[in-house]
Amino acid sequence: MAEEGEEEVMELGAYGAAVRLVEDAAAEVLLLWALNDPAARRHNFFVRHAALTLPIDSCGRHLSILQSPSSMSTPGVTGAVMWDSGVVLGKFLEHAVDSGKLVLKEKKVVELGSGCGLVGCIAALLGGDVILTDLPDRLKLLRRNVESNLLDGGGVRGNANVRELTWGDELDSEFVDPLPDYVLGSDVIYSEGAVMDLLSTLRQLCGSSTTIFLAGELRNDVVLDYFLEAAMKEFTIGLVDQTQWHPDYRSYRVALFILVKQFPKLMPEDPDHI
């Protein structure tokens, strides 16, 4: 245990490096905004929303992620273009695997709110058995990116499948039998109205061996506070320090959290009652 006033750090889930535990939602949000000053940082450092493609190298391959800038005019549609948090998360996974802190080979991975699909594609290139998910009207673009970047090129270490998933709905057996080893999400904490449905889905997906990675843009402190406060009732949460991210893909406008489900501790049996 950490001494009073000291930050507690520990390894969580399947990630082989220590992270700082989030112990108070409001204090965590205040600290992130105070240290990172996201409003003063450049938006979309790694992406261009007006471009039809996002070129990026990962896992020894050149990926070209299709975007649909015109779809951004539709209210509520944000997954038609890439955001910095997705690039950060994808390259973090690559760096963590390369540095021996994470193993995705032959692991079941579910990505929530996949959008354009970069994170899920990288997870598949790293050997994961990946299910990329999003709402029905987002799947066409997602499938095109999976097909053009993975299926057409060959030589992929893992697998990638695209499926419809609406947060809050009861999940099909494909998602939970067996439960995934990893759940991934980038820019999925964006509105208070979606938080409880997101947590419902995370709850269904998580077993004792499931590790969650969520990367998000620091754009709304109220929404992040609301999510952390609610999530801490069921999950242990850690903040992955930027020194553990890919050295070329770090941003003060992005935070990267790791979550593991809390389970009741089993009390040791009383030998007098055996």
Automatic annotation (TrEMBL):
Extract the Pfam families matched here: Methyltransf_16
The record's annotation in InterPro entries points to: Methyltransf_16, SAM-dependent_MTases_sf
Q: SUPFAM superfamilies from the xrefs?
A: S-adenosyl-L-methionine-dependent methyltransferases
Name the PANTHER family on file. Answer: HEPATOCELLULAR CARCINOMA-ASSOCIATED ANTIGEN (PTHR14614), RIBOSOMAL LYSINE N-METHYLTRANSFERASE 5 (PTHR14614:SF109)
Stated name of the protein: Protein N-lysine methyltransferase METTL21A
- Organism this protein belongs to: Dioscorea zingiberensis
